[in-house]
Amino acid sequence: MSADFIFRILGMIGFAIGGAFWGKSLGIAANVNATASTMTVDQYAFVIGSVGALVGLILTPYITTRPMRAIKKMLTTVSAQSLLSALVGLIAGLIVAALFSFPISLLPPPFGKVLPFIAVLLFGYLGVSLFVMRQGDIFSIFSALRSGGASAPKDGAGGWADNRNILLDTSVIIDGRIADITRTGFLPGTLLIPRFVLNELQYIADSPDSMRRQRGRRGMEVLSTLQKEPAMQVRISDIDVEGMREVDDKLVVLARQMRCPILTNDYNLNRVAELQGVTVLNINELANAVKSVLLPGEIMNIRVIQEGREPGQGVAYLDDGTMVVVENGREYMDKEITIMVTKVLQTAAGRMIFGRPEDLSAANH
Predict the structure, then answer these.
(1) What is the pLDDT of residues 147-161, one digit of tens each?
(2) Which of 188, 269, 294, 305 sits most deeply, having the most CB atoms within 10 A of its CB?
(3) CATH number for the 165-288 domain, one of 1.10.533.10, 3.40.50.720, 2.50.20.20, 3.40.50.1010?
(4) Residue 224: partners with Cβ closer than 8 Å, 6 or more residues away
């Protein structure tokens, strides 16, 4: 049996008993000057009790289980750090209110009775608001004290990233490069994977389409690798965002609530998050930033593998995926040649290199 059904039965019984007692009181009052059409006391008790049972059957869930569910859902959207900050702020506010309440209670009535209650509400609210707004600074101070204060940066322990959360998108897990990045130690903080991201990954892994299923399973393998990586802390959280169905929308709202960045390689999510003031860590931008810098006039060896768009052009690719367009390179198809870089073009899709064969008579096979 569900909790709603149990509380409906209990509410029906409770309201019926209360209605019966109330109906009996009304019946006694009505029968003081009884007439032929006046109902008896038992009839009053039965009618009011029946109405009470009906009211209890209908309204009990709205005053018991459903408010509790709403509070539970609200709490799941708040991080543990925010909850702890609110609790500490409430305690601090109540302590300050208690200190103020004693002298205020000595005032003449009605001020001595009303102002202490107002002080409790006011300082409790201010304490919660202040501690939640400055939770990052407060936890940074505690982290610094725990790690040794000013000596922490010198010893290499602790630091600003100890309590930093980074939200992971489904696309960046499937991509797989995140596992290699975490091994380098260049990504400080805790990788936080919401449950709805994991559910989407499982949905892709169970897809009837073989390509999507393969990508989903690859994401599961990458996630398993991340959890086994000792250099990085990975945490799967049940935190959720109500009122939204799309995973990207939930990630953006969650990032704003938790004040943390999103790690992704999804261009659309990147743009939407930036428009809403959310910090985005894009793996594609990182990959472009760490590619080797080539200047016009430099010499490099490449292998032409396909034709270009323009007549006579050949196309090659570097190990990092950078496209190399070779002028007059069509005649060197499937051959390794030496080219001189003539131009480097940075586009939204990445870096493109243009070059021409250094010696038209030199072709290695």
Answers:
(1) 554 444 434 434 445
(2) 269
(3) 3.40.50.1010
(4) none
